[in-house]
Write a structure and sequence with these properties.
The chain is α/β, with parallel strands linked by helices. It contains 19 helices and 18 strands. It folds into 4 domains: 201 residues, 3-Layer(aba) Sandwich (Rossmann fold), CATH 3.40.50.300; 35 residues; 47 residues; 216 residues, P-loop containing nucleotide triphosphate hydrolases (Rossmann fold, 3-Layer(aba) Sandwich), CATH 3.40.50.300. The model has no long low-confidence stretch (mean pLDDT 88).
Length: 550
C-alpha cells in the first residue's frame, strides 16, 4: 500500500530551484535510502515530507491519519536534563494525556469536588475516559518501551542518569533517534542518523531499522548501511528524483544501465536528426535557389517530421567530482614500527604494550569503538602526544601526510589560496586553478577557512595533502564530511596510491574498497587481521572471538 505520494513537487529559494518536479511513491513498511550530492535538496525534501515546509508547486498525498516523525541532522536536546529525562519528553500526545490524568486526580482531592456528589461523579467519569484513552495510546507501557528502545541503541542502565551535556556526538544522535522511534510513527524520517556513530552503534542502528515495522526514509552517506537495510533508493540530483529498487550496490548497477540505455537512445535520435537535416539541406540545394516548389515542399515535410520526432533528454552526467590524485616518492620497506606503546590519561588506560609494523604499500584500516584511543594512537605516531612507555619509529625516508578529523591542521584565519601557497609557491592564478579541481570557485577560495562548511574544509585538506606528496598517509575519518561521489573519488585515489595508508574510519564500504589489512583496537590491545578488507575482517573476527573467550 502506498502511504505517501509526491507528484511534481517544486521548491525554490530565490532564484535557486532546489526541487524541480519531484515525483515519488513510498510503500508501507519499506526502508528508502535518499541519496544525492551535498546541496541537492535532500534535507529540504525531508522537511516537506515531515510537513515542516511547504512546496511551491505539486501535490502530496498522505494516507489518512498518518503519524510522522523526523530526526534532524543535529537533534535539539536539553543539555541540562539527564538522558532519561530528555528521552521522556518524547511522545507529546502521551505526555499530554498523562498530565490530564494527573490534573483529574488532583481535582478529585479538592474538598469542593469530593464534597459535591455531582462534580465528583463528573470528574470520576472524565478520569475513566482519560484512563481508557491513555491505555489505548500505550501510555502505561511508555516508560518501559522507552527504556527498551534506549537499550536497543546501546545505552546501558547507568547511562540513563548521565547529563546530556557529557554525551558524545554519536550518543546524542542515538538519544534523538530513541525519541522518534518510541513514538512508532507510520513514516519515520532520518537525516544522517549514522553520523558520529562507531561501528558497534551502527550495527545497533541496523538491527533497529530492520525490526521497525513502519516506513523509513533515510538520508545517509553510509553505503554499507544502505546495502543492508534499504529496500529501495531515491536519487535526488539536479532537483529531479529517480527511484530504484534494492540497496546501494543494486542502485549503482541499475543507474549505470539506465544511463547507458538513455545515452544510446539519445545518440540514435541525434544520428537520425542529423540524417534528416542533411537530406533537407540537399533537397534545398536541388531546388534551384527555391524556385522548384516541389523540392521546397519536400524540404518542409522533412522539417515537420523532425519537429514531430519524440526527443529524449540527454542524460545528465554525474556532477563534477574532485580532481584528487596522490603521488608519492618511494620510501623504505618498513614504514612504521611501534613497540611496547602505552598511554593513559589519569586513571584511564587507553592502550598497553602495543606492537605494530606497517610495510610499504599497505593500506591499513584501524577500527574500534569510540573512546578506545584510535585518534590518540594517530597523534602519538605524529609526535603530538607523548606515550607513557614504548617507542614509535618511522622509516628514514618516510614523509607523513595527516588528515585531521576536526580539520585542526588548517589555519582558519587563512584563505584557501593562502593555505595552498603556503604548501607550494604557486602564483595566485595557479593556486586558484588548482583549487578549482576541488570545486572551489573564486568566492570560496578567497574567504577565511573558518567560514567554510565541513565538506569544503575536507576538500581543502585533501587538496593540501595532494600538494604535499607524502609517502605515508595518516587519515582520521576522511569521509565524514564527504558526499558519496567524493568518497568514491577518494577511494579510487587511495587504491592507485603507491605509498602507505593508515586510516581510522567507521565507513565500512570505504574500508571494504580501500583496506588490504584491518587492525582493531579493543580493550587496550591491537588485534591484527592481515589480508582483510572490512567484510573479511568480520568473518575472521567471528571465528576468532569464541577462541579468545574460551
Amino acid at each position: 500500500m502506498i502511504i505517501l505520494n509526491l507528484d511534481a513537487i517544486t521548491r525554490h529559494f530565490g532564484a535557486n530551484d532546489v526541487l524541480r518536479g519531484v515525483s515519488a511513491a513510498f510503500q508501507e513498511g519499506t526502508v528508502i535510502g535518499l541519496v544525492g550530492p551535498n546541496g541537492s535538496g535532500k534535507s529540504t525534501l525531508m522537511r516537506i515530507l515531515a510537513a515542516e515546509d511547504q512546496p511551491d508547486g505539486g501535490s502530496i498525498y498522505r494516507y489518512p491519519g498518518q503519524r510522522v516523525a523526523r530526526l534532524a541532522q543535529d537533534p535539539e536536546l536539553d543539555v541540562t536534563r539527564t538522558v532519561l529525562e530528555e528521552a521522556m519528553t518524547a511522545g507529546p500526545a502521551i505526555r499530554a494525556m498523562a498530565e490530564e490524568l494527573a490534573a483529574l486526580e488532583e481535582r478529585m482531592g479538592r474538598p469542593e469536588v469530593y464534597e459535591d456528589a455531582r462534580r465528583l461523579q463528573n470528574t470520576i467519569d472524565a478520569h475513566a475516559r482519560a484512563t481508557q484513552a491513555f491505555a489505548a495510546a500505550g501510555g502505561p507501557a511508555f516508560a518501559g518501551r522507552l527504556r527498551a528502545t534506549l537499550r536497543g541503541l546501546g545505552f546501558e542502565e547507568a547511562d540513563l542518569d548521565l547529563p546530556v551535556s557529557v554525551l558524545s556526538g554519536g550518543q546524542k544522535k542515538l538519544l534523538g533517534l530513541a525519541k522518534v522511534l518510541v513514538e512508532a510513527p507510520d513514516l519515520l524520517l532520518l537525516d544522517e542518523p549514522d553520523n558520529h556513530l562507531d561501528l558497534a552503534a551502527k550495527e545497533d542502528l541496523e538491527r533497529t531499522l530492520e525490526r521497525y515495522g513502519g516506513t523509513v526514509v533515510l538520508i545517509s552517506h553510509d553505503r554499507y548501511l544502505l546495502d543492508l537495510v534499504a529496500d529501495g533508493i531515491l536519487e535526488l540530483d539536479h532537483g529531479v528524483a529517480t527511484q530504484y529498487e534494492g540497496g546501494y550496490t543494486e542502485y549503482v548497477a541499475e543507474r549505470a544501465e539506465r544511463r547507458a540505455r538513455a545515452e544510446k537512445a539519445w545518440g540514435m535520435e541525434e544520428k537520425e536528426l542529423q540524417r534528416l537535416d542533411a537530406a533537407r539541406r540537399r533537397i534545398i540545394a536541388w531546388s534551384s535557389g527555391g524556385q522548384n516548389e516541389k523540392m521546397i515542399r519536400r524540404a518542409r515535410n522533412i522539417e515537420r517530421r523532425m519537429e514531430r520526432m519524440p526527443r529524449t533528454d540527454r542524460p545528465t552526467s554525474d556532477r563534477r567530482g574532485i580532481g584528487l590524485a596522490f603521488q608519492a616518492e618511494r620510501g623504505g620497506d618498513r614504514v612504521l614500527q611501534i613497540k611496547g606503546l602505552s598511554k593513559a590519561f589519569g586513571d584511564k588506560s587507553l592502550f598497553q604494550d602495543l606492537d605494530l609494523t606497517l610495510w610499504r604499500g599497505e593500506r591499513v584500516g584501524l577500527v574500534g569503538g569510540n573512546g578506545t584511543g584510535k585518534s590518540v594512537l594517530l597523534k602519538t605516531i605524529l609526535g603530538e602526544i607523548a606515550p607513557d612507555a614504548g617507542t614509535v619509529n618511522l622509516g628514514p625516508t618516510i614523509q607523513v601526510g595527516h588528515y585531521a578529523q576536526e580539520h585542526e591542521d588548517l589555519d582558519g584565519t587563512r584563505t584557501p589560496i593562502e593555505e595552498i601557497r603556503r604548501v607550494r609557491p604557486l602564483s595566485e592564478g595557479a593556486a586558484l586553478g588548482f583549487l578549482g579541481r576541488f570545486l572551489f570557485d573564486q568566492a570560496m577560495a578567497t574567504r577565511p577557512i573558518s567560514r567554510l562548511s565541513g565538506g569544503e574544509r575536507s576538500r581543502m585538506q585533501m587538496a593540501r595533502l595532494m600538494l604535499e606528496s607524502p609517502n605515508f598517509l595518516l587519515l582520521d575519518e576522511p569521509t565524514n564530511h564527504f558526499d558519496i561521489a567524493s568518497a568514491e573519488v577518494l577511494e579510487d585515489a587511495l587504491s592507485e596510491y603507491s605509498g602507505t595508508v593508515f586510516v581510522v574510519s567507521h565507513d565500512r564500504y570505504f574500508l571494504d574498497t580501500v583496506a588490504t589489512r584491518i587492525v582493531e583496537l579493543e580493550g587496550g590491545r591491537l588485534w591484527d587481521y592481515p589480508d582483510c578488507n572490512y567484510t573479511a575482517y568480520l568473518a575472521e573476527r567471528a571465528k576468532r572471538r569464541p577462541i579468545l573467550a574460551s
